[in-house]
Amino acid sequence: MRAPLIDNLQYANFSPCIFEQMRAGGVDAVHVTIAYHETFREMVLNLERWNRWFEDHANLIFKATTGADVVRAQETGRTAIFFGFQNPSPIEDDIGLVEICHQLGIRFMQLTYNNQSLLATGCYEAEDTGLTRMGKQVVAEMNRVGMVVDMSHSAERSTLEAIEHSTRPIAITHANPHWWHAALRNKSDRVLSALTGAGGMLGFSMYPHHLAGGGACTLEGFSAMIAEAADRYGAQHLGLGSDLCQDQPNSVVEWMRVGRWSKVIDYGEGSESHAGFPPMPDWFADNRDFGNIRNGLLAQGMPAQDVDGIMGGNWQRFYDTSFGAA
């Protein structure tokens, strides 16, 4: 069986068209964002919508909860859909909801989304106080049930403390190295060294604000960055997390940035200073374009085995060891 193709983060405006594109692109698994700022009940409504999609498009997609589901997707010619949160808001202030959410199929949860949360500090805050008391307990509970700690939008100290406190490898599902592009959301060499040194995973983002040159970023430049990251951190710890927001209206950016906590659009200290989605690079518009990245990595002279891992094999291995109870 060929190596799997996995995208470990999308927040597209999902539709039958996108599901068809997943199949056309040979995408075996996608981790989709099921909540940004939703409460528990609002998150459940999103699950209801996905259940309808699974029912209506069972020939294209299915709900996935284990690494074995990636193999099942390959065997049946479908795409396995994994669920995750970009914010801990669905667990509200109730640690018991971590296990309930895992039982509902959630496999990833960010401890923050840009702001300070009950658990940790987001990357837009001026002061980073690290994991809170509740945050440490939630990390332990996530470790116990098999929900992956995701620090994609978290600040430096909080991320380092999550790596240290977690008894299982964590993930940064969608970000790039700060040494390549100094976006506030991208991660320092110190963080990435600690992450991968502890067995964690980094998913490279194709979201233009995370790219050197933005939407004008070249495939060669993106691929060269991944090749350098493989030299620095080991190719076995790297994958893709495109952060694809395909077909989303610009109004969704306000929900992502603001939620309900602010009356004005918030860009964060040093972050993007304009609303709306930026144009994607010409080599990655949708799920049919992952082959461009594979070709770009091979053109860098990376070994085919390493490229297979980055395109999905490494995420599959991570799923196999991360989603079950400790």
Name a few traits of the molecule:
single chain; 326 residues; alpha/beta; TIM Barrel; six-stranded parallel beta sheet; three-stranded parallel beta sheet; 11 helices; 9 strands; 39% helix; globular
The portion of residues forming beta strands comes to 5-15%
- Ranges where pLDDT stays below 50 over 5 or more residues in a row are none
The CATH topology is TIM Barrel
Compute the gyration radius: what is it?
A: 18 Å
Major sheet: 6 strands, parallel
Average residue pLDDT: 95
Helix and strand pattern: EHEHEHEHEHEHEHEHEHHH
Give a structural overview:
With 326 residues, the chain is of the alpha/beta class. The chain has a single domain, classed as TIM Barrel (Alpha-Beta Barrel), CATH 3.20.20. It contains 11 helices and 9 strands. Strands 1, 2, 3, 4, 5 and 6 form a 6-stranded parallel beta sheet that branches. Strands 7-8-9 form a 3-stranded parallel beta sheet. The longest helix is centred in the C-terminal third of the chain and has 19 residues, at 304-322.
Question: Which helices and strands occur, and which strands form pairs?
Answer:
Blueprint: E1 6-10, H1 16-24, E2 29-35, H2 40-56, E3 61-63, H3 68-76, E4 79-85, H4 96-103, E5 106-110, H5 133-145, E6 148-150, H6 156-165, E7 171-172, H7 189-197, E8 201-204, H8 219-233, E9 238-240, H9 251-258, H10 290-299, H11 304-322
Parallel strand pairs: 1-2, 2-4, 3-4, 4-5, 5-6, 7-8, 8-9
Please sum up the structure shown:
With 326 residues, this protein is of the alpha/beta class. Helices cover 39% and strands 12% of the residues. The chain is globular, with a radius of gyration of 18 Å.
